[in-house]
Amino acid sequence: MSVVTIERVDTIALRIPYDHWAPKPTFGGIARETMDCLLLRVTASNGLIGWGEAFWGGWQATQAAIEHWVAPLSIGQDVADVGMTARFERALHNFGRSGPYVYALAGLDIALWDLRGKLAGVPVHALLGGRRRDRVAVYASLLQYNGDVERVRRTVDRALEDGFGHIKLHERTAAAAMAARDVAGPDIPLMVDANCAWLPEQATAAVGAMAAADLKWMEEPIWPPEDFAALAAVRRATGVATAIGENAGSPLDFPKMIAADCVDYVQPSVIKIGGLTPLWRITTEAEQAGVTCAPHSPFFGPGYLATVHVLAATARESALERFYCELAYDPCGHVVPIAGGRVEVPDAPGLGGDPDFEAMQKFRA
């Protein structure tokens, strides 16, 4: 059987208008006017296309890393080489052990899984040992409303009407959390992501004030996020379950946070941590330690699909994160449409379906 190699690696940056029914939140201090997305389109020597996705934050730097370093390294490499991205990470380590180069490798790694599934004629979850469930629950991850309680109430109500059975806020006040609980009622799982809002000496009081909202988890309450000892202290003092990991700089951080007894739900992000390969390793190692993996996934491309496959194959069931907003274009929404707060796990080869190449042209950066 002839070797199938990488023939071409292209990047496609998208800037997608969206509406979350409020003034736009900020990201990095700048209003987030669009949902940005950086896709990789990997062409194999036999003509097959694999699709990947790299972290969208500061996508211009990641795009440059792909075009000037990762793509040249990739050309001619065997698609079946499962050690490829780890080898590239080591080759490029002087550029940083996290950030644009690792995001670039994440996009390549996801595309390679897509290609391998297509070559084998099986869905990615089959390459992970097979799916354990046919459907995956989805939680509505609300964007930030900056403490506007009435907007929080309206949007929670809207998400429930759309069939979501789990809600997450990006808020920092007990009033917002209590308003969401009031609308959702006692039985809907409710989470809060504080986006590293508080210094350790502030966090216990802030998290404790939200405890009355009966949170499933408090996400990223501490700055800096890698202060695992401080987070463990907050967890003990408040009794509120914690979720961290989207800001992890390396897969090696996850065993450290588990050992520090500071986390109930680990949250690696497939498009930041280096791709599906490390995401699956983190998931299985966490489960062996008795911790649930609830991957970070507020994005809309092949990385979102890769996360669905992981959640289908993992032993511990967890819900899929979905940013709750209206998009002008949803790159992979047609592959896993949300119905009744769930998605069907795709069974087509690879990730299960490709983004619409023609439709995306209107939104290219």
Give a quick rundown of the structure.
The protein is α/β, with parallel strands linked by helices and 365 residues long. It has helices at 59-74, 84-91, 100-120, 124-127, 149-161, 174-184, 200-210, 228-238, 253-259, 276-288, 302-313, 357-360, and strands at residues 6-19, 26-27, 30-31, 34-44, 49-54, 135-142, 167-169, 190-193, 217-219, 242-244, 265-266, 292-293, 320-324, 326-327, 342-344.
CATH architecture descriptor name of the largest domain: Alpha-Beta Barrel
Distance between the termini: 40 Å
CATH fold call of the largest domain: TIM Barrel
Low-confidence stretches: none
The total count of helices amounts to 12
Q: What CATH first level of the largest domain would be assigned?
A: Alpha Beta
Helix content: 25-40%
Please identify the oligomeric state. single chain
What is the domain total for the residues? 2
Gross geometry: globular
How is this structure best described in words?
- Helix 1 (59-74) crosses helix 3 (100-120) and helix 6 packs parallel to helix 7 (200-210).
- The chain is built from twelve helices and 15 strands.
- Strands 6, 7, 8, 9, 10, 11, 12, 13 and 15 form a nine-stranded mixed beta sheet that branches. The protein has a four-stranded antiparallel beta sheet with strand order 5-4-1-14.
- The mean pLDDT is 97.
- Strand 10 (242-244), helix 9 (253-259) and strand 11 form a beta-alpha-beta unit.
- 36% of the residues lie in helices and 19% in strands.
- It folds into two domains: 6-121, Enolase-like, N-terminal domain (Enolase-like, domain 1); 126-355, Enolase-like C-terminal domain (TIM Barrel, Alpha-Beta Barrel).
- The protein is of the alpha/beta class.
- The radius of gyration is 20 Å and the shape is globular.
- The longest helix is centred in the N-terminal third of the chain and has 21 residues, at 100-120.
- It has helices at 59-74, 84-91, 100-120, 124-127, 149-161, 174-184, 200-210, 228-238, 253-259, 276-288, 302-313, 357-360, and strands at 6-19, 26-27, 30-31, 34-44, 49-54, 135-142, 167-169, 190-193, 217-219, 242-244, 265-266, 292-293, 320-324, 326-327, 342-344.
